[in-house]
Amino acid sequence: MIAPANEPENSPVRVMLVDDSAIIRGLYRRMMSEDDGVEVVADAGNGEIAVRRLQDNPLVEVIILDIEMPVMDGVTAIPLLLKARPDVMILMSSTLTTQNANASLRAMRAGAADYLPKPTTSRGLTSGQDFRSELLMKIKILGETLRKKSGNIAPRPVPGKTPVTPVAKPETKASGWRLRSSSSIQLRNPGRHRPRVIAIGSSTGGPEALREIFETMPLDINLPIVITQHMPPMFTKILADRLGRSGAWTVREAEDGDELKPGVALVAPGGRHMLFKQQGTRIFAKLDDGPPENFCRPAVDPMFRSVNKLFGGAVLGVVLTGMGDDGTKGAKEIIDTGGTIVAQNEETSVVWGMPGAVTGAGLCSKLIPRNEMAKYITNFVVRFAK
Hints:
- 35% of the residues lie in helices and 19% in strands.
- By secondary structure, it is of the alpha/beta class.
- The protein has two domains: 13-163, Response regulator (Rossmann fold, 3-Layer(aba) Sandwich), CATH 3.40.50.2300; 183-385, Rossmann fold (3-Layer(aba) Sandwich), CATH 3.40.50.
- The chain has a seven-stranded parallel beta sheet with strand order 8-9-7-6-12-13-14, sandwiched between helices. A five-stranded parallel beta sheet has the order 2-1-3-4-5, sandwiched between helices. It has a two-stranded antiparallel ribbon with strand order 10-11.
- The protein is globular.
- The model is unreliable at 1-7 and 154-178 (pLDDT under 50).
């Protein structure tokens, strides 16, 4: 059971806080009490209590879940929480360590929607406006996604500055943004150039979508792959290692000077944009510390622009599940030079923000379920060899 469909349009997203620190739970409550778009309806000091509280409170829509807790940790609790409420959205939040990064990726495989690192100091929690803004933004988008999939109404937008720019339908700008629907999407014809590189952008839900791609993607497409996944430092190296173990591809976190080679996938490191430069006939990664784009670093737009500049229309851009609209501007440049953009479909996306943005802008040639993405990419590349 979730929030009734006939509730007021601006009803707050209902949140449960799960953290073994009463101080942290209190700080979260204070942050959320200042915003009428969210409401804390339950809290718990460990995963075992959280499961009971969720069973007692069917209106919970988003759970903020710590990793390290006594009695039952967050990762262990996830399958039990999802068994009690399969539609609930889980946002992992813990301090940024290698151990917690590993645990968070396991949590996302178990069904968590996203991860948000806690500031490393209490001052960062109490006065960190960036953390507060991102926390509220993620809660609201996850709540909206849940309501949208269930046919219920959307929550309020985040007031003031938000870390990403949600996609707005023209008819809803006055009352707040909504996630774009795929019901009226116009697809375009694919480009006519054989790709020389595959460029993938992803965010919320991306790690699992990427895993499924690399589990089945054959090496015989004979192309390099470059990936920008919105993630903090530490996460991207662990993600690359896991993707490399999931299939036949060599996958690694990019370093300055890494050469683009067939059968090798490079993942942009957390905190740095991934660009490319050409030396003779060879192309190398060039990591960049420039300002965030779309409030993200790494961001998909700089990567798309960079590969497009070097390869022209010979780019297949893939936009996977994620919040916001990062990748849309870069995708337009790829399309303008004759390249092709495809996107994950709405039904299999955790959040249909990024793929919804490129399709809504008329840049997408095909909407593809997550489990069919590797097959589509392979067939798209192979058809040019016939």
